[in-house]
Amino acid sequence: MLKKIAQKLKSLTDIAILTHENPDGDALGSSFALKFALEKLGIKADVVLEKPINSDFEFTGWTPLVYDETMTFENVIGVDFNEPTRTGTCASLFENAKIKAIVDHHICKAEPCEIFLSDHTAAAAGELVFELINELGAEIDTNIATALYISIMSDTGGCRFGNTTAKTHTILASLIGLVDVSYVCRMLFDITPLRKLELSSKLISEIEFYGDGKIGVISAENLAPEDEHYLNDMSNRALNVEGCQIGVFFKQRGDIVKVSLRTLGEIDAAKICSSFGGGGHKNAAGCGISKPFAEAKEEFIRELMKWI
Ligand SMILES: [Mn+2]
Questions:
Q1: Rounded distance, CA 249 to CA 235, Å?
Q2: At which of 190, 210, 245 does a domain end?
Q3: 212 CA to middle of ligand 1, Å?
Q4: Do residue 211 and residue 243 come from a single domain?
Q5: CA 295 – ligand 1 centroid, Å
Q6: How many angstroms is it from 155 CA to the middle of ligand 1?
Q7: pLDDT of the residue at 303
Q8: What is the three-class DSSP state of 20?
Q9: What CATH number is associated with residue 64?
Q10: Of 190, 213, 231, which residue is a domain's last?
Q11: Contact 174, 207 (CB under 8 A)
């Protein structure tokens, strides 16, 4: 499939790259790595996002095209999602395109398009994009290497999560000479906007525990939309409390309670979230529940209690 996708991409002159809404480091890094590689081959490529890049990633200097409803693209490739609805308002670009492909590493329920590479053993979409770039024959330069490095380090939490493999390290090792590692890691993992520090300290101070401290729960019922991206790692923060095996973060978004779940070992986050219509990876998954906040939370925690 990798070969097929590379051949297809090489036959095109203009490609839009899409990724999931509220893009994280993997979504952005794998998208921009692919853009830079395609441009090296003389193919016009744009990353199209719902919104401008969030402040966490301003340091990259990456510039996406911001979606507007007049946009149309004949050719689209999606990275880091396998359900087109995950791209938010960009879903129409995907639906209306003539040629569409997806490269993804989430557990997959249904094939979203004909040209579809799905490998849930990959730690990050960036690992698959790395292989795709090699297949395309584009030479990896500093811009591409940095984007891939950000992608893989983000989805593996700096090679600390259970999804990290020997292959992850091998790929990173091949990139490392081209990347300003200490700068990138400081920007990814250490630098915190003051607003994020304030918000997360407040939410963490209100953490609740269930099941003898095995389940840590952080909740944000009244969250301003512009603050949402500051709280991407809240479920990890809950999981990091000594004795916790499950970390969960509930936040209200419109009429939906969004759930972000992190688990240890055999506690299958993807399975738990799929019973609420969501999905993801074995130890990191999410879902949305259309119920009042307290009710959604109670129902989800009741399900978690079965796993401990
Ligand atoms: Mn990913």
A1: 5
A2: 190
A3: 32
A4: yes
A5: 30
A6: 6
A7: 97
A8: coil
A9: 3.90.1640.10
A10: 190
A11: no
Q: What averages of pLDDT result for each successive group of 10 residues across the chain (308 residues)? A: 95 97 96 98 98 92 97 97 94 96 92 93 98 98 98 96 95 98 97 93 97 98 88 93 98 95 96 94 94 98 96
Question: Which pair of structure tokens corresponds to residue 185?
Answer: 């890691």
Domain that holds residue 239: 194-305
Token pair 């004795």 in the structure block, residue: 243
pTM for the model: 0.87
What does 189-256 look like in DSSP terms, one character per residue? II---HHHHHHHHHHHHT-EEETTTTEEEEEESS--GGGGGGGTTHHHHHHTSTT-SEEEEEEEETTE
Residues in the chain: 308
Q: How far apart are CA 248 and CA 238, in angstroms?
A: 7
Q: What is the pLDDT of residue 60?
A: 98
| pLDDT value for 109 | 82
Residue 252 has a CB neighbour count (10 Å cut-off) of 17
CA 78 to ligand 1 centroid distance, Å: 12
Where is 82: in which H helix or E strand?
A: none
Residues 120 and 231 in one domain: no
Alpha carbon of 125 to ligand 1 centroid (Å): 5
Rounded to the nearest whole angstrom, what is the distance from the C-alpha of residue 63 to the centroid of ligand 1? 20
Calpha distance 2→27 (Å, rounded): 19
Q: Same structural domain for residues 14 and 157?
A: yes
Distance separating alpha carbons of residues 116 and 82, to the nearest angstrom = 9
Quick one: 168 and 248 in the same domain?
no
Q: Provide the pLDDT for residue 161.
A: 87
Residues 10 and 106 in one domain: yes
* Contact assessment for residue 152 and residue 126, using Cβ atoms and an 8 Å cutoff: yes
Residue ranges of E strands in 27-132: 44-49, 65-66, 75-79, 99-104, 115-118
